[in-house]
Design a protein that fits this description.
The protein is an alpha+beta fold. It is built from twelve helices and ten strands.
């Protein structure tokens, strides 16, 4: 492995940063966080036109057919911009699930829609990482019954991908028997919902839980990486402008140390994320373990980075007056999704030396 980004990947990263910077400023993030679905239709269309939504969709189905690391660079930039969360659920987990399903007819129908941005998929895997009272979807005589909690991007979604004991069930969201109830969360830029199913016939059952779970975990890790990078930038800007005792606070040794610790923490975290994304394509026996380790490490690193960035702001960075709170909340919500650090490290330990190929 050439441990660095290629010129093409750097261009992709730069293109996405410019697109998001132009079309999704923090003023827009604040507006979106107050809507019911946290969906930005204009941004979604731009991401589709730029080929970002079809990054993992094969070219024969209208996508770009890029590598998993390429798609993760997009996830990182969306995290840096505090963009709406449907990218992870639809373009990453949805694309991986359908591509891995082995259903050619399903692939022909859904993958072009993902690439074109004409369908959004809500993903509910919370019950795959921990039992919850009153939750769980079961397949009974070909029909789905039960409830799924914390379903990512289910509000106003077109399709749902839900965990069941029989596999991942893909269902149409806007059909009889499907009830979607939005849930409140600390992060306004993404929406979760409780989904209740009664007598719903699945479109397909997909036997790809480990691969979809790994894809989602790595994507969330890159989202947190982008958020942490932006937090460092904001802390540097604040420390370069805010004055105390006639000096900018960035000139004080204690603040310098804090900023240096943030930068030092991000470098190895980025390398770990890159390797996990590389392993997803090239090292199938390593992929699940690396995804768990990567998500666990980035969750803790990003949490610490946001804490220190808030301290550099003198604590007021958490208030809504400052943009930093967008990433503080985003990282806080991402940390437990698809497994918190403790659960993920236990899982990685179990997988060590005996991980199945994804």
């Amino acid at each position: 492995m050439d441990f660095g980004l290629s010129d093409e990947q750097k261009l992709l990263q730069d293109t996405m940063r410019k697109l998001l910077g132009a079309e999704f400023p923090t003023t827009r993030a604040r507006e979106v966080s107050k809507t019911a679905s946290a969906h930005d239709a204009a941004l979604w269309k731009s991401l589709a036109e730029a080929g970002a939504l079809g990054a993992l969709v094969p070219e024969q189905h209208g996508g770009a057919g890029l590598s998993f690391l390429d798609a993760m660079l997009v996830a990182e930039e969306i995290g840096r911009a505090a963009g709406p969360g449907a990218y992870v659920a639809t373009a990453v987990m949805g694309s991986v699930a359908v591509a891995a399903s082995g259903h050619e007819a399903l692939a022909k129908e859904v993958l072009p829609e993902i690439a074109a941005g004409t369908t959004r998929i809500g993903v509910g895997l919370a019950e795959a990482t921990g039992a919850r009272d009153g939750a769980g979807v079961r397949l009974d005589h070909g029909r789905l019954e039960g409830a799924a909690l914390f379903v990512l991007d289910a509000v106003e979604a077109d399709r749902l991908l839900l965990h069941t004991a029989a596999g991942l069930a893909l269902v149409r969201a806007k059909t009889g028997g499907v009830q979607v109830t939005p849930l409140a969360s600390v992060d306004g830029t993404r929406r979760f919902a409780e989904v209740r199913l009664s007598g719903v016939e699945p479109v397909a059952l997909v036997d790809a839980l480990p691969r979809v779970l790994a894809a989602g975990r790595i994507a969330l890790a890159f989202d947190s990486l982008g958020a942490a990078e932006r937090a460092l930038e904001l802390a540097l800007e604040y420390a370069s402008q805010r004055k105390q005792f006639g000096r900018v606070i960035g000139s004080f040794q204690a603040v310098k140390h804090m900023l240096a610790e943030i930068a030092a923490a991000l470098e190895p975290a980025r390398s770990l994320a890159w390797y996990a994304a590389h392993a997803f394509d090239a090292e199938p026996r390593e992929a699940a373990r690396m995804a768990a380790l990567c998500k666990a490490h980035l969750a803790e690193t990003a949490t610490e980075v946001l804490r220190k960035a808030t301290e550099v702001h003198g604590g007021i960075g958490f208030t809504e007056q400052y943009d930093l709170h967008l990433w503080f909340r985003r990282v806080a919500l991402t940390r437990p999704l698809l497994g918190g650090p403790e659960l993920l490290r236990e899982e990685a330990t179990r997988l060590r030396g005996g991980a199945p190929s994804l």
